[in-house]
Every structure is written in structure tokens, then in C-alpha cells.
Amino acid sequence: MTRPLVVVANRLPVSRATDPADGRLTWQASAGGLVTALRPVVDEVGGAWIGYDDDAAGVPDRVDGLNVDLHAVGLSRAQVRGYYHGFSNRTVWPLFHDLVADPVVDRRWWHTYQDVNRAFAEVTAGALERARQSEDHDEQPLVWIQDYHLMLVPEMLRNMASTADTPVGFFLHIPFPPPELVARLPWRDQLLQGMLAADAVGFHTVRYRDNFVRAVQQLFPGVTTLGDSIALPDGRHVRCVAHPISIDADAFAELATSAATEAELADLREQFAGRRVLLGVDRLDYTKGIRHRLQAIELLLEREPDLRGKVAFVQIAVPSRDDVKEYRDLRTEVETEVGRINGRFTEPGHDVPVHYFYRGVSREQLAAYYRLADVMCVTPLKDGMNLVAKEFVTCQAAGDEAGALLLSEFAGAILEFGEQAVRCNPFDVEGLSYLLASALELPETERRRRIQAMAEAVRERDVYRWVADELAAIERGHGGI
Ligand code: GDG
Question: Is the CB of residue 338 below 6 angstroms from any atom belonging to ligand 1?
Fold first, then answer.
């Protein structure tokens, strides 16, 4: 691709850091998946990135080593509350995750969401104008808008800037639910129209894509479909595609066998000697099924006294959205559950059965835990894709380990792993407790074979393939082919 790339996302791809030498504030590119994925493209073609920062005025125009102009969108605290904590995370998030929590519908949040999407569109229009005037590029930029925080931006941008020559794409990182769920939202038409202004709309799976197409057909008369495209009554075509996001598999394989990871792993092996390790790694989010998983562990220990003292369950729960009530409540529930299990099954002078961290760990520690695990428990109630599953199999294969992956039928990742994962229905707590036991009992050669097969599937469709497929679909959608 030769067009400069303009990315629009909730967050900027940079974070503040303190210079260890003199304690000064510096900026660095963040380690997030999207930034890593787009780096090779922007290194080559350059471009701009539009995102929110809580100190927009303090954000530099550029950061060393990242070939994009930064455009920070400044928001007031009230705007962040209404747009981010409110409409995005308490209305859309639970609704799009099949109502695993009750969505809260509040008209004020909706108004703020519109205002903030307009602010993003305005900053994007300005960045487009600048990119066009720059002498560095002969081609028009390509705009790529990310995720459920910004569903109105494609349409708002089209209305405020001349974009006839600008390919515009939108990608949804969370599931798109069945039409009857979307239909509950009072502002469903506006959200769909917002997305439909893009040339291409991308989803992780064919099912989410089909849900979107059906919702559009049901809500807007006169819409027809033509292959991958929706044909709108005004003659426009919107390409609707399914491209599963992934990870930088080579980088994870390298990380998994680095000296720092090996050192962490040696410590962990010593600490957990004589015990099989079950592992969970999630943002502390009610979609991730952490409570059901803990209940399944409790049932397992209750039913099989021989396993007590011989298995440990490690749950890394990364703090998330703790400004939102449902997330604070979840933390209390999870911690009560952990306390109950440890209270029931800890023997005097022995280690606890559940090791629970309410914090993130370093990348090296994370890779070491992935390698250590005998069973990785990825049991979300609903998950757009789930990158933890892909990282786990990649690290295991790189270290020639033989763990098992227990994977929810409701995670997008299940489609790529077929029968190699131990499939589970995370709502069936008792069934889950039996599957945990059977995953532990799979023969070692079988586990190793499955890990290698899943890692191969990840390598074949890594995150660079996702970027390339998405950008190509946006170009094709724009060209009307
Ligand atoms: C959303 C969708 C979709 C976790 N703990 C630590 C840590 N992590 C990193 C993992 C992984 C990332 O966080 C989590 O990504 P997931 O994909 O599993 O989940 P969400 O955050 O819910 O992401 C999801 C994704 O968007 C992409 O489209 O797959 O379905 O919900 O990369 O490694 N990283 C470090 N320490 C930790 O303790 N360093």
C-alpha cells in the first residue's frame, strides 16, 4: 500500500514514561496489539493517528520511532463519563455481548456519544486536510476507524469533509449480536447508518458479519445484498467482511524462549513443583466468565479430593474499567469466590489452591505463565476473538510444551482452532468442571500435537495478514469491486 494511513481509535498509540536517567517525562509508542500490527505499514507509508488523551494539550505531534502524526482529541470529564464509561461500556458493550449484563439505556449518554464522535470526526477531517496538503504523499489517505466507541464517525466524517477520493474502513473488535438484540437499542438506525458510511465494514467472524447484514436488511427497507456487499437504496455499496484479528506470532514465539522468560519460568516451576497448573488471564470483565470458571474449580476440588494439593489455579485479573459499577461489583464477587475456595480447601502449612492477582504482569512473566500452564482456561461467556488463546498456543509451541487449551464455544477464536481445543460451554459450570479434569487427563503426545496444530493455524493467519486483508477490503470497497 502506498496511501498514508489515518487511524481513528479511542486511544492514541503512545504512553507517557519517565526517563530513568533524569526523571523527565518522555513519550513512547505503546505495546498494544493494534500499534504493533500497524507499525510495518506506517513505517513505510506514514500517516496520522487520532485518539483521546486525558491531557490532549500535552501530547506531542510525533513520538520517536513511530511514523505517524498524533492528533489528540481532548474531552471533558463529563464527556468521558457519558461517551466512554456510559454509552460505550454500559450500553453497547453488554448489549453486543449477548446481554451477559443488563445494558443501561440513558439518553444523555447517547447525546454525549454523538458529541464525542463528532469531535473525533472533526479532528480526523483536519488531519485529512493536512495529509492532503503535505508534499510527502501523492495519494489520498486511507481512513481506518476502530471499534464500538466510534460507530458514528464514518458518516460524520463523510458529512464534514470531502471524502469522495478517500477510502474509509471500519472494524468492530467486539461481537456483532443477532438483529433482535440490536433492535432493542433506541438509536439502532443511527448506529448502523454511521457504520454504513464506510466503504468496508470488518468483523472477526462470518457470524458477526452475517448478524450485521441481517440487521441492516431488517431495519432498512430497499437494501439488497450482492456477494460480500450490501447495496443501499442510494446506489452505494458497502463491503462487509470477516477477518479474524490475531497476534504477531513470531514476536510471541521469540518472547516465549527469551532468556528473561526462561528465568521467570524457572522460578515458577520451582514454586509450583509437584502441582499441575490451571491458568486464567483476563481483563477483569464480566464477559470473561471468571466467576463460572472459579465455580467449576470449586466443584472439581469438591468432587475429586485426590486433586487437592496437586492442582493450583492461577488467575491473572487485569484491572479494567473500575469507574463502572458493574466492574467494581464483579471484583467483589470474584474476590469473595476466591476467598471461599481458599477457605475451604487450604490445608494448614500448605499453599492455597487459587492464586489470584488483581494486577497485570510483565510480558516476560505472562509468557512464562503461558508456558507453565497445564490447562489454559479461556472460558468467556462471549468474546469477539480472544487473543490470550492465540498467545498461549504460540508460547507453548515455541517452548515445546504440552498444555491443553480449554476454549469457550462463545469466543471468536473457536472457529480457528476447530477440534484441537477442548471446547466448552462456560455457562455449564458442572460440565466445565468435568472438562477441566478431562483436559488434565489428555495424553501428553496428544496435547503436544494439538498445541503444534493450533500454533500453526495462528502463524498462518497472524496479525499482519489481518491488516493486509482489511486494508485490501477497504480499497476494494472504495473502488466498487
Ligand atoms: C478486545 C475484545 C478481541 C492480559 N493480561 C496481561 C496482558 N494482557 C494482554 C494479553 C492480550 C490482551 O491483554 C487481551 O486481549 P483479548 O483479545 O484477550 O481481550 P480484550 O481486552 O477483551 O480485547 C477481544 C480484542 O479486543 C482484539 O480485537 O480479541 O475479543 O474483547 O493481548 O496479552 N499483557 C501483559 N500483562 C498482563 O498481565 N503485559
Answer: no
Buried b (16+ CB within 10 A) or exposed e, 5-16: bbbbbbbbbbee
Locate cell 494439593: which residue?
Answer: 309
Residue of 386, 392, 393, 410 best suited for mutating to test ligand 1, as the one with most atoms within 8 Å of CB: 386
Identify the CA nearest to 199 among candidates 244, 148, 163, 152. 163
| Ligand 1 in reach of 104 Cβ (< 6 A) | no
Residue nearest to atom 39 of ligand 1 (CA): 363
pLDDT of residue 48: 94
Ligand 1 touching residue 383 (CB < 6 A): yes
In ligand 1, the atom with minimum distance to the C-alpha of 363 is: 39
* CATH of 5-246+464-478 given 2.60.40.420, 3.30.56.10, 3.40.50.2000, 3.40.50.150: 3.40.50.2000
What ranges make up the beta strands (E) of 288-374?
311-318, 354-357
Per-residue model confidence (pLDDT) at position 319: 93
Terminal CA-CA length for the chain: 17
Q: Is the CB of 32 under 6 A from ligand 1?
A: no
Residue 32 has pLDDT above 80, yes or no: no
Q: What is the pTM of this model?
A: 0.96
pLDDT at 401 over 90: yes
Q: Is 245 in the pocket of ligand 1 (CB under 6 A)?
A: yes
What digits encode the pLDDT tens for the residues 297-329? 999 999 999 999 999 999 999 999 988 888 999
Distance CA 296, CA 428 (A): 9
Cell of 329: 461489583
Pick the CATH number of 249-460 from 3.40.50.1370, 3.30.420.40, 3.40.50.2000, 3.40.50.300: 3.40.50.2000
Cβ of 318 below 6 Å from ligand 1: yes
Tens of pLDDT, residues 326-345: 899 999 999 999 999 999 99
Q: pLDDT band for 176, please (50, 70, 90 cuts).
A: very high
